[in-house]
Amino acid sequence: MGAGVSDWKLARAVSLTGQLGVVSGTALGAILARRLQTGDLDGQMRHALKHFPIPGVAEKILADYYIPGGKPANQPFKLSPMPGLRLHPDLLAITVAANFVEVFLAKEGHNGLVGINFLEKIQFPTLPSAFGAMLAGVDYVLMGAGIPRSIPGVLDGLSRGEAVELKIDIEGGLSGEEYFSKFDPVAFCGGPAPALKRPFFLGIVASATLAMTLARKSNGQVNGFIVEGETAGGHNAPPRGPLQLNAQGEPIYGARDVVDLEKIRELGLPFWLAGSYGAAGKLAEALSCGAVGIQVGTAFAFCEESGITPAIKQQVFQLSREGKLRVFTDPLASPTGFPFKVVQLPGTLSDTQNVPLRKRLCDIGYLRHAYRKADGATGYRCPAEPVDDYIRKGGTREETKGRECVCNGLTATIGLAQLSKENVFDLALVTAGNEAAHVARFLKPGRNAYSAAEVIALLLGNENTAAAAPLELAAAA
Predict the structure, then answer these.
(1) Mean pLDDT in residue range 372-389
(2) How far is the C-alpha of 66 from the C-alpha of 246, rounded, in Å?
(3) Contacts with 115 (C-beta within 8 Å, 6 or more apart), sequence order
(4) Which domains does the chain have, with CATH numbers?
(5) What pTM was computed for the model?
(6) Could you tell me which of 263, 202, 255 has the C-alpha nearest to residue 230?
(7) d(CA 373, CA 6)
(8) Is the Cβ–Cβ distance between 3 and 305 less than 8 Å?
Protein backbone atom coordinates (compact mmCIF):
# COMPACT_ATOMS: atom_id res chain seq x y z
CA MET A 1 0.00 0.00 0.00
CA GLY A 2 2.93 2.36 0.43
CA ALA A 3 3.79 4.26 3.61
CA GLY A 4 1.24 5.03 6.31
CA VAL A 5 -1.74 3.74 4.33
CA SER A 6 -2.16 0.59 6.38
CA ASP A 7 -1.74 2.64 9.54
CA TRP A 8 -2.65 1.79 13.12
CA LYS A 9 -6.30 2.73 12.58
CA LEU A 10 -6.71 0.30 9.69
CA ALA A 11 -4.75 -2.51 11.33
CA ARG A 12 -6.78 -2.07 14.50
CA ALA A 13 -10.06 -2.16 12.57
CA VAL A 14 -9.09 -5.41 10.85
CA SER A 15 -7.78 -6.95 14.05
CA LEU A 16 -11.02 -6.17 15.87
CA THR A 17 -12.90 -8.40 13.42
CA GLY A 18 -10.76 -11.39 14.38
CA GLN A 19 -8.38 -11.14 11.42
CA LEU A 20 -4.69 -10.22 11.26
CA GLY A 21 -4.30 -6.46 10.89
CA VAL A 22 -0.92 -5.39 9.53
CA VAL A 23 0.66 -1.95 9.83
CA SER A 24 3.14 -0.67 7.28
CA GLY A 25 6.63 -0.32 8.76
CA THR A 26 7.89 1.89 5.93
CA ALA A 27 9.37 5.29 6.89
CA LEU A 28 7.58 5.38 10.23
CA GLY A 29 10.22 7.65 11.76
CA ALA A 30 9.58 10.33 9.15
CA ILE A 31 5.82 9.84 9.43
CA LEU A 32 5.81 10.25 13.22
CA ALA A 33 7.92 13.41 12.94
CA ARG A 34 5.44 14.89 10.46
CA ARG A 35 2.37 13.83 12.41
CA LEU A 36 3.75 15.65 15.46
CA GLN A 37 4.51 18.75 13.41
CA THR A 38 0.93 18.87 12.15
CA GLY A 39 -0.15 19.14 15.79
CA ASP A 40 -1.17 15.56 16.59
CA LEU A 41 -4.68 16.95 16.81
CA ASP A 42 -6.29 13.77 18.13
CA GLY A 43 -3.49 13.32 20.66
CA GLN A 44 -2.88 9.70 19.74
CA MET A 45 0.85 10.04 19.00
CA ARG A 46 1.47 11.67 22.37
CA HIS A 47 -0.78 9.14 24.09
CA ALA A 48 1.28 6.25 22.71
CA LEU A 49 4.60 7.99 23.45
CA LYS A 50 3.58 8.27 27.11
CA HIS A 51 3.66 4.48 27.19
CA PHE A 52 7.09 4.16 25.56
CA PRO A 53 9.04 2.17 28.15
CA ILE A 54 12.54 3.66 27.79
CA PRO A 55 12.97 6.89 29.79
CA GLY A 56 13.86 10.13 28.03
CA VAL A 57 13.24 9.02 24.45
CA ALA A 58 9.68 10.28 24.07
CA GLU A 59 10.48 13.57 25.74
CA LYS A 60 13.33 14.25 23.32
CA ILE A 61 11.17 13.41 20.31
CA LEU A 62 8.39 15.71 21.45
CA ALA A 63 10.87 18.53 22.08
CA ASP A 64 12.30 18.10 18.60
CA TYR A 65 9.11 17.75 16.56
CA TYR A 66 5.85 18.46 18.36
CA ILE A 67 4.17 21.76 17.41
CA PRO A 68 1.00 22.52 19.43
CA GLY A 69 -1.79 23.32 17.00
CA GLY A 70 0.39 22.34 14.04
CA LYS A 71 2.91 24.14 11.87
CA PRO A 72 1.80 26.96 9.55
CA ALA A 73 0.70 25.65 6.14
CA ASN A 74 3.39 27.73 4.41
CA GLN A 75 6.18 26.24 6.51
CA PRO A 76 8.00 23.06 5.42
CA PHE A 77 8.36 20.06 7.67
CA LYS A 78 11.49 19.79 9.74
CA LEU A 79 13.32 16.74 8.44
CA SER A 80 14.55 13.86 10.53
CA PRO A 81 18.08 12.57 9.73
CA MET A 82 18.33 10.29 6.69
CA PRO A 83 18.99 6.57 7.18
CA GLY A 84 22.48 5.22 6.67
CA LEU A 85 24.81 2.45 7.74
CA ARG A 86 25.24 4.13 11.12
CA LEU A 87 21.95 5.72 12.15
CA HIS A 88 22.11 9.17 13.70
CA PRO A 89 21.12 8.84 17.40
CA ASP A 90 18.03 10.99 16.82
CA LEU A 91 16.93 8.82 13.90
CA LEU A 92 17.62 5.67 15.90
CA ALA A 93 15.40 6.92 18.71
CA ILE A 94 12.49 8.07 16.55
CA THR A 95 12.64 4.86 14.51
CA VAL A 96 12.28 2.66 17.58
CA ALA A 97 9.61 4.94 19.02
CA ALA A 98 7.61 5.26 15.81
CA ASN A 99 7.36 1.51 15.33
CA PHE A 100 6.35 1.15 18.96
CA VAL A 101 3.68 3.84 18.56
CA GLU A 102 2.12 2.28 15.46
CA VAL A 103 1.89 -1.21 16.92
CA PHE A 104 0.87 -0.01 20.39
CA LEU A 105 -2.10 1.93 19.01
CA ALA A 106 -3.12 -0.92 16.71
CA LYS A 107 -3.16 -3.36 19.64
CA GLU A 108 -4.48 -1.13 22.40
CA GLY A 109 -7.60 -2.27 24.23
CA HIS A 110 -8.19 -5.66 22.59
CA ASN A 111 -6.66 -9.10 22.19
CA GLY A 112 -6.57 -9.26 18.39
CA LEU A 113 -3.44 -9.99 16.38
CA VAL A 114 -1.34 -7.28 14.76
CA GLY A 115 1.57 -7.62 12.36
CA ILE A 116 4.03 -5.23 10.77
CA ASN A 117 5.37 -5.27 7.21
CA PHE A 118 8.95 -4.32 6.30
CA LEU A 119 10.76 -4.16 2.95
CA GLU A 120 14.06 -6.03 2.71
CA LYS A 121 15.25 -3.36 0.27
CA ILE A 122 14.99 -0.74 3.04
CA GLN A 123 17.78 -2.17 5.18
CA PHE A 124 19.20 0.66 7.30
CA PRO A 125 16.30 1.08 9.77
CA THR A 126 15.29 -2.59 9.93
CA LEU A 127 16.87 -3.53 13.25
CA PRO A 128 15.58 -0.63 15.39
CA SER A 129 12.22 -0.84 13.59
CA ALA A 130 11.82 -4.49 14.56
CA PHE A 131 12.86 -3.74 18.14
CA GLY A 132 10.31 -0.93 18.43
CA ALA A 133 7.52 -3.11 17.09
CA MET A 134 8.49 -5.92 19.46
CA LEU A 135 8.50 -3.52 22.41
CA ALA A 136 4.80 -3.02 21.65
CA GLY A 137 4.14 -6.76 21.43
CA VAL A 138 3.80 -7.18 17.66
CA ASP A 139 2.52 -10.65 16.78
CA TYR A 140 3.79 -11.08 13.21
CA VAL A 141 6.59 -9.63 11.10
CA LEU A 142 6.14 -9.80 7.33
CA MET A 143 8.95 -9.00 4.91
CA GLY A 144 9.39 -9.09 1.15
CA ALA A 145 11.11 -7.14 -1.67
CA GLY A 146 14.24 -9.20 -1.31
CA ILE A 147 15.50 -12.34 0.40
CA PRO A 148 15.22 -11.74 4.17
CA ARG A 149 17.10 -14.84 5.34
CA SER A 150 18.63 -13.02 8.31
CA ILE A 151 15.43 -11.64 9.80
CA PRO A 152 14.28 -14.78 11.69
CA GLY A 153 17.60 -14.80 13.56
CA VAL A 154 17.33 -11.08 14.23
CA LEU A 155 13.92 -11.60 15.82
CA ASP A 156 15.36 -14.40 17.95
CA GLY A 157 18.19 -12.19 19.17
CA LEU A 158 16.02 -9.17 19.90
CA SER A 159 13.58 -11.31 21.87
CA ARG A 160 16.48 -12.25 24.16
CA GLY A 161 17.74 -8.67 24.46
CA GLU A 162 20.90 -9.46 22.51
CA ALA A 163 22.86 -7.28 20.09
CA VAL A 164 22.02 -8.10 16.47
CA GLU A 165 23.44 -7.26 13.08
CA LEU A 166 22.25 -7.25 9.49
CA LYS A 167 24.42 -7.53 6.40
CA ILE A 168 23.98 -4.48 4.19
CA ASP A 169 24.17 -4.48 0.41
CA ILE A 170 26.93 -2.11 -0.74
CA GLU A 171 27.28 -1.36 -4.45
CA GLY A 172 30.88 -1.62 -5.62
CA GLY A 173 32.09 -3.47 -2.54
CA LEU A 174 35.34 -5.39 -3.00
CA SER A 175 35.65 -9.14 -2.74
CA GLY A 176 35.81 -10.17 0.89
CA GLU A 177 34.39 -6.89 2.22
CA GLU A 178 31.25 -7.08 4.30
CA TYR A 179 29.20 -4.29 5.80
CA PHE A 180 26.76 -4.59 8.68
CA SER A 181 24.24 -2.44 10.47
CA LYS A 182 24.14 -3.18 14.19
CA PHE A 183 21.72 -2.64 17.03
CA ASP A 184 22.29 -3.31 20.70
CA PRO A 185 19.14 -3.25 22.86
CA VAL A 186 21.22 -2.92 26.03
CA ALA A 187 22.97 0.19 24.75
CA PHE A 188 19.71 1.69 23.53
CA CYS A 189 17.91 1.01 26.79
CA GLY A 190 20.84 2.25 28.88
CA GLY A 191 20.70 -0.93 30.92
CA PRO A 192 19.30 -4.47 30.77
CA ALA A 193 17.04 -4.95 27.79
CA PRO A 194 13.60 -6.45 28.35
CA ALA A 195 12.84 -9.99 27.27
CA LEU A 196 10.34 -9.72 24.43
CA LYS A 197 7.88 -12.01 22.67
CA ARG A 198 9.38 -13.35 19.46
CA PRO A 199 6.85 -12.58 16.70
CA PHE A 200 6.04 -15.09 13.99
CA PHE A 201 7.90 -14.40 10.75
CA LEU A 202 6.19 -14.58 7.35
CA GLY A 203 8.28 -14.21 4.21
CA ILE A 204 6.62 -12.52 1.24
CA VAL A 205 7.59 -14.49 -1.85
CA ALA A 206 6.80 -14.55 -5.55
CA SER A 207 8.29 -17.96 -6.35
CA ALA A 208 8.56 -21.42 -4.85
CA THR A 209 12.34 -21.16 -5.18
CA LEU A 210 12.45 -18.15 -2.87
CA ALA A 211 10.13 -19.86 -0.40
CA MET A 212 12.37 -22.92 -0.34
CA THR A 213 15.46 -20.74 0.14
CA LEU A 214 13.89 -18.97 3.11
CA ALA A 215 12.60 -22.19 4.64
CA ARG A 216 15.91 -24.04 4.36
CA LYS A 217 18.60 -21.36 4.61
CA SER A 218 17.28 -18.73 7.01
CA ASN A 219 19.14 -18.29 10.29
CA GLY A 220 16.00 -18.90 12.35
CA GLN A 221 12.49 -20.22 12.11
CA VAL A 222 10.27 -19.13 9.21
CA ASN A 223 6.64 -19.53 10.25
CA GLY A 224 4.94 -19.20 6.87
CA PHE A 225 4.68 -17.30 3.61
CA ILE A 226 2.65 -14.69 1.80
CA VAL A 227 2.67 -15.84 -1.83
CA GLU A 228 2.20 -12.67 -3.85
CA GLY A 229 1.30 -12.41 -7.51
CA GLU A 230 2.30 -9.60 -9.86
CA THR A 231 -1.10 -7.89 -9.71
CA ALA A 232 -0.54 -6.87 -6.07
CA GLY A 233 0.10 -3.23 -5.20
CA GLY A 234 3.38 -1.63 -4.22
CA HIS A 235 6.60 -3.27 -5.37
CA ASN A 236 6.36 -6.39 -7.51
CA ALA A 237 9.02 -9.00 -8.07
CA PRO A 238 10.61 -8.53 -11.52
CA PRO A 239 9.65 -11.05 -14.21
CA ARG A 240 11.98 -14.01 -14.50
CA GLY A 241 14.37 -13.86 -17.46
CA PRO A 242 15.21 -10.86 -19.66
CA LEU A 243 12.93 -7.89 -19.08
CA GLN A 244 10.37 -7.41 -21.83
CA LEU A 245 7.78 -4.64 -21.96
CA ASN A 246 4.31 -4.61 -23.46
CA ALA A 247 2.98 -1.87 -25.74
CA GLN A 248 2.11 0.26 -22.70
CA GLY A 249 5.64 -0.04 -21.29
CA GLU A 250 4.83 -2.50 -18.51
CA PRO A 251 6.86 -5.62 -17.67
CA ILE A 252 5.53 -8.79 -19.26
CA TYR A 253 4.98 -11.69 -16.89
CA GLY A 254 4.74 -15.22 -18.23
CA ALA A 255 4.40 -18.85 -17.31
CA ARG A 256 7.73 -18.83 -15.45
CA ASP A 257 6.30 -16.27 -13.04
CA VAL A 258 3.35 -18.41 -11.95
CA VAL A 259 4.12 -19.77 -8.48
CA ASP A 260 4.26 -23.55 -8.17
CA LEU A 261 1.88 -23.96 -5.23
CA GLU A 262 2.53 -27.68 -5.05
CA LYS A 263 6.15 -26.97 -4.09
CA ILE A 264 4.96 -24.38 -1.58
CA ARG A 265 2.64 -26.95 -0.01
CA GLU A 266 5.49 -29.45 0.21
CA LEU A 267 7.33 -27.14 2.58
CA GLY A 268 4.69 -27.89 5.20
CA LEU A 269 4.32 -24.28 6.33
CA PRO A 270 1.13 -22.20 6.27
CA PHE A 271 0.78 -19.75 3.41
CA TRP A 272 -1.57 -16.99 2.31
CA LEU A 273 -2.24 -15.96 -1.29
CA ALA A 274 -2.02 -12.31 -2.33
CA GLY A 275 -2.58 -10.30 -5.48
CA SER A 276 -6.16 -9.75 -6.72
CA TYR A 277 -7.72 -11.75 -3.90
CA GLY A 278 -9.90 -8.87 -2.69
CA ALA A 279 -13.15 -10.13 -4.18
CA ALA A 280 -15.99 -12.40 -3.12
CA GLY A 281 -15.18 -16.07 -3.68
CA LYS A 282 -11.41 -15.58 -3.72
CA LEU A 283 -10.95 -16.81 -0.16
CA ALA A 284 -12.62 -20.12 -1.01
CA GLU A 285 -10.42 -20.35 -4.09
CA ALA A 286 -7.29 -19.84 -2.01
CA LEU A 287 -8.37 -22.40 0.58
CA SER A 288 -8.95 -24.93 -2.19
CA CYS A 289 -5.32 -24.43 -3.25
CA GLY A 290 -4.07 -25.35 0.21
CA ALA A 291 -3.63 -21.80 1.52
CA VAL A 292 -4.77 -20.96 5.03
CA GLY A 293 -6.12 -17.61 3.87
CA ILE A 294 -5.54 -14.53 1.78
CA GLN A 295 -3.75 -11.22 2.13
CA VAL A 296 -5.81 -8.24 1.00
CA GLY A 297 -4.35 -4.82 0.38
CA THR A 298 -6.06 -2.74 -2.27
CA ALA A 299 -9.61 -3.15 -0.95
CA PHE A 300 -8.45 -1.95 2.46
CA ALA A 301 -6.31 0.86 1.02
CA PHE A 302 -9.39 2.92 0.11
CA CYS A 303 -11.59 2.14 3.12
CA GLU A 304 -12.51 4.73 5.74
CA GLU A 305 -9.79 3.71 8.20
CA SER A 306 -6.83 3.85 5.80
CA GLY A 307 -4.32 6.70 5.73
CA ILE A 308 -4.97 7.83 2.13
CA THR A 309 -6.45 11.31 1.98
CA PRO A 310 -10.24 11.51 1.48
CA ALA A 311 -9.80 13.52 -1.73
CA ILE A 312 -7.71 10.78 -3.34
CA LYS A 313 -10.19 8.11 -2.26
CA GLN A 314 -13.04 10.02 -3.92
CA GLN A 315 -11.01 10.33 -7.14
CA VAL A 316 -10.45 6.59 -7.14
CA PHE A 317 -14.12 5.81 -6.45
CA GLN A 318 -15.29 8.06 -9.27
CA LEU A 319 -12.92 6.56 -11.83
CA SER A 320 -13.74 3.05 -10.62
CA ARG A 321 -17.48 3.69 -11.03
CA GLU A 322 -16.85 4.96 -14.57
CA GLY A 323 -14.66 2.00 -15.46
CA LYS A 324 -11.75 4.36 -16.16
CA LEU A 325 -9.32 3.61 -13.34
CA ARG A 326 -5.96 2.32 -14.52
CA VAL A 327 -3.00 0.96 -12.59
CA PHE A 328 0.34 1.09 -14.40
CA THR A 329 3.13 -1.32 -13.51
CA ASP A 330 6.03 1.12 -13.82
CA PRO A 331 9.38 -0.61 -14.42
CA LEU A 332 11.36 2.56 -13.63
CA ALA A 333 9.59 4.70 -11.02
CA SER A 334 11.00 3.09 -7.88
CA PRO A 335 14.68 3.67 -7.02
CA THR A 336 14.76 0.05 -5.82
CA GLY A 337 14.71 -1.21 -9.40
CA PHE A 338 11.60 -3.31 -8.67
CA PRO A 339 8.47 -2.76 -10.79
CA PHE A 340 6.07 -0.50 -8.90
CA LYS A 341 2.30 -0.25 -9.24
CA VAL A 342 1.16 3.37 -9.80
CA VAL A 343 -2.50 4.41 -9.87
CA GLN A 344 -3.04 6.84 -12.73
CA LEU A 345 -4.75 9.86 -11.16
CA PRO A 346 -5.04 13.49 -12.31
CA GLY A 347 -3.00 15.87 -10.20
CA THR A 348 -0.58 13.23 -8.92
CA LEU A 349 2.94 12.33 -10.02
CA SER A 350 1.42 9.88 -12.49
CA ASP A 351 -0.17 12.79 -14.40
CA THR A 352 2.90 13.58 -16.48
CA GLN A 353 0.92 15.37 -19.19
CA ASN A 354 -0.56 18.02 -16.90
CA VAL A 355 1.67 18.51 -13.86
CA PRO A 356 5.15 20.07 -13.89
CA LEU A 357 8.14 17.82 -13.39
CA ARG A 358 9.11 17.59 -9.74
CA LYS A 359 12.41 19.27 -8.91
CA ARG A 360 14.73 16.40 -8.06
CA LEU A 361 15.58 16.22 -4.37
CA CYS A 362 16.36 13.37 -1.97
CA ASP A 363 15.59 14.51 1.57
CA ILE A 364 13.89 11.53 3.23
CA GLY A 365 16.31 8.91 1.94
CA TYR A 366 14.77 5.55 2.81
CA LEU A 367 15.41 4.20 -0.70
CA ARG A 368 18.97 5.46 -1.06
CA HIS A 369 21.60 2.92 -2.08
CA ALA A 370 24.87 2.55 -0.18
CA TYR A 371 28.00 2.41 -2.32
CA ARG A 372 31.73 2.06 -1.73
CA LYS A 373 33.74 5.20 -2.38
CA ALA A 374 37.22 5.00 -3.82
CA ASP A 375 38.73 5.55 -0.37
CA GLY A 376 36.71 2.70 1.12
CA ALA A 377 34.21 4.93 2.89
CA THR A 378 30.45 4.41 2.45
CA GLY A 379 28.50 6.87 0.35
CA TYR A 380 24.80 7.16 -0.47
CA ARG A 381 23.00 7.88 -3.71
CA CYS A 382 19.48 7.66 -5.09
CA PRO A 383 18.54 7.43 -8.78
CA ALA A 384 15.74 9.94 -8.05
CA GLU A 385 18.10 12.61 -6.68
CA PRO A 386 19.49 15.43 -8.90
CA VAL A 387 21.07 13.79 -11.92
CA ASP A 388 24.41 15.59 -11.64
CA ASP A 389 24.70 14.59 -7.98
CA TYR A 390 23.97 10.96 -8.81
CA ILE A 391 26.55 10.88 -11.61
CA ARG A 392 29.14 12.61 -9.40
CA LYS A 393 28.67 9.76 -6.92
CA GLY A 394 29.45 7.15 -9.58
CA GLY A 395 25.97 6.45 -10.89
CA THR A 396 24.99 6.61 -14.55
CA ARG A 397 22.57 8.95 -16.29
CA GLU A 398 20.66 5.95 -17.64
CA GLU A 399 19.85 4.81 -14.08
CA THR A 400 18.11 8.12 -13.35
CA LYS A 401 15.65 7.98 -16.23
CA GLY A 402 12.02 7.68 -15.18
CA ARG A 403 12.77 7.58 -11.46
CA GLU A 404 10.35 9.19 -9.01
CA CYS A 405 10.84 10.29 -5.40
CA VAL A 406 8.78 7.46 -3.97
CA CYS A 407 9.48 8.56 -0.38
CA ASN A 408 7.94 12.02 -0.78
CA GLY A 409 5.23 10.80 -3.14
CA LEU A 410 3.98 8.22 -0.66
CA THR A 411 4.00 10.59 2.31
CA ALA A 412 2.03 13.10 0.23
CA THR A 413 -0.55 10.38 -0.41
CA ILE A 414 -1.35 10.29 3.32
CA GLY A 415 -1.60 14.08 3.66
CA LEU A 416 1.97 14.77 4.80
CA ALA A 417 3.32 16.48 1.68
CA GLN A 418 6.53 18.44 2.02
CA LEU A 419 6.65 22.10 0.95
CA SER A 420 9.63 23.07 -1.21
CA LYS A 421 11.63 26.29 -1.10
CA GLU A 422 9.59 27.35 -4.13
CA ASN A 423 6.36 26.97 -2.06
CA VAL A 424 5.33 23.91 -4.07
CA PHE A 425 3.83 20.91 -2.27
CA ASP A 426 5.04 17.47 -3.24
CA LEU A 427 2.46 15.57 -5.24
CA ALA A 428 1.07 12.20 -4.25
CA LEU A 429 2.26 8.92 -5.74
CA VAL A 430 -0.56 6.41 -5.20
CA THR A 431 0.16 2.71 -5.32
CA ALA A 432 -2.43 -0.06 -5.37
CA GLY A 433 -2.96 -3.41 -7.03
CA ASN A 434 -4.87 -4.02 -10.24
CA GLU A 435 -8.05 -4.57 -8.22
CA ALA A 436 -8.20 -0.81 -7.61
CA ALA A 437 -10.19 -0.66 -10.83
CA HIS A 438 -13.03 -2.43 -9.03
CA VAL A 439 -13.04 -0.86 -5.54
CA ALA A 440 -16.42 0.78 -6.22
CA ARG A 441 -17.92 -2.69 -5.67
CA PHE A 442 -17.49 -2.10 -1.93
CA LEU A 443 -19.65 1.04 -1.97
CA LYS A 444 -23.24 0.44 -0.98
CA PRO A 445 -25.92 2.43 -2.87
CA GLY A 446 -25.92 6.09 -1.95
CA ARG A 447 -22.61 5.93 -0.07
CA ASN A 448 -19.18 7.35 -0.85
CA ALA A 449 -17.23 5.38 1.74
CA TYR A 450 -16.93 1.88 3.15
CA SER A 451 -15.31 0.39 6.24
CA ALA A 452 -12.72 -2.33 6.74
CA ALA A 453 -15.40 -4.46 8.41
CA GLU A 454 -17.58 -4.19 5.29
CA VAL A 455 -14.67 -5.41 3.15
CA ILE A 456 -14.21 -8.42 5.40
CA ALA A 457 -17.92 -9.19 5.40
CA LEU A 458 -17.97 -9.24 1.60
CA LEU A 459 -14.85 -11.39 1.36
CA LEU A 460 -16.16 -13.88 3.89
CA GLY A 461 -19.57 -13.91 2.25
CA ASN A 462 -21.42 -13.03 5.44
CA GLU A 463 -22.29 -10.11 7.66
CA ASN A 464 -21.01 -11.66 10.88
CA THR A 465 -17.31 -10.87 10.65
CA ALA A 466 -16.73 -11.66 14.31
CA ALA A 467 -17.51 -15.31 13.58
CA ALA A 468 -14.75 -15.61 10.99
CA ALA A 469 -11.84 -17.91 11.70
CA PRO A 470 -8.79 -15.86 12.74
CA LEU A 471 -5.95 -15.34 10.29
CA GLU A 472 -7.94 -16.07 7.17
CA LEU A 473 -7.45 -12.48 6.10
CA ALA A 474 -4.63 -10.02 6.52
CA ALA A 475 -4.50 -6.29 5.81
CA ALA A 476 -1.51 -5.67 3.61
CA ALA A 477 1.06 -3.03 4.39
Answers:
(1) 92
(2) 48
(3) 11, 20, 21, 22, 23, 138, 139, 140, 141, 142, 199, 202, 474, 477
(4) 8-322+435-475 (3.20.20)
(5) 0.93
(6) 255
(7) 37
(8) no
